[in-house]
């Protein structure tokens, strides 16, 4: 099985395995780590599987069997050194590489870029995703649009049972939990539409918590923001209370949202845990305060 997966990866037959088709720097590093770990482990697994088949065939019970019969054999220093030293070397190598990758891919670590980071606040609801753009003053349901080559800082929480926010082609998943504000930095290196979803069971319609992530040019993104602000209704507190109720939803856009809605969602569960967010980042965005998005 492992050999078959390696063969598929080597021959490029990964069209439907989106985690092996990264479109961002974080996903690319995670893909490389998975491939490296798989190849490293196969150094032990593949020979063991081959030897198992050979031993079963050679030492099968049959008339005229030519295999040497040595019932009193019990030790070989060469074999002991071989089958202990190779796995130990592999485990040490895998441990060092994984430890370095863990620190390098720490999700709250900002991405190096000469472009300004875009903040998107993500709230998991039953059974839908609310995306708020505090700097642009707009919000969406199950629709996420970002500019290409721009670092995105996702601030993630939940006003529902715990879920997991995941865009496989851009990076690994991050849990959305009530009373907590998690941080995840991702980036799309090229234009395209990528699949996103909730990756944690949260009830009857959890399978409908999917959304498209559209990476566009900066100009197209700015035009989309202007269109949303001009043509979409405002999200009021009454409207938000309706969104919180358990129900699936189609994609929607809102020209504004209540000031400090994300922070209110995090703090209303009386939790002091704000993983990855500083006290300053927990405050309502300046753009929201200056534009008066309180309805």
Automatic annotation (TrEMBL):
Listed GO CC annotations: plasma membrane
Transmembrane residue ranges: 33-60, 81-105
Top enzyme class: oxidoreductase
Predominant subcellular localization, coarse grouping: membrane
GO biological process: ATP synthesis coupled electron transport
Compartments, record wording: Cell membrane
Every Cytochrome oxidase subunit II copper A binding domain range: 115-227
Region Disordered, annotated ranges: 273-295
Gene3D superfamilies: 1.10.287.90, Cupredoxins - blue copper proteins
EC number, as in UniProt: 1.10.3.-
Membrane topology type: Multi-pass membrane protein
Listed Pfam families: COX2, COX_ARM
Cross-referenced PROSITE patterns: COX2_CUA, COX2_TM
GO molecular function per UniProt: copper ion binding; cytochrome bo3 ubiquinol oxidase activity; cytochrome-c oxidase activity; oxidoreductase activity, acting on diphenols and related substances as donors, oxygen as acceptor
Catalysed reaction equations from the record: 2 a quinol + O2 = 2 a quinone + 2 H2O
Alphabetical list of InterPro entries matching this protein: CcO_II, CcO_II-like_C, COX_ARM, Cupredoxin, CuRO_UO_II, Cyt_c_oxidase_su2_TM_dom, Cyt_c_oxidase_su2_TM_sf, Cyt_o_ubiquinol_oxidase_su2
Domain named Cytochrome oxidase subunit II transmembrane region profile: residues: 11-109
Name of the protein described by the UniProt record: Quinol oxidase subunit 2
Protein's organism: Paenibacillus oceani
Source species taxonomy: Bacteria, Bacillati, Bacillota, Bacilli, Bacillales
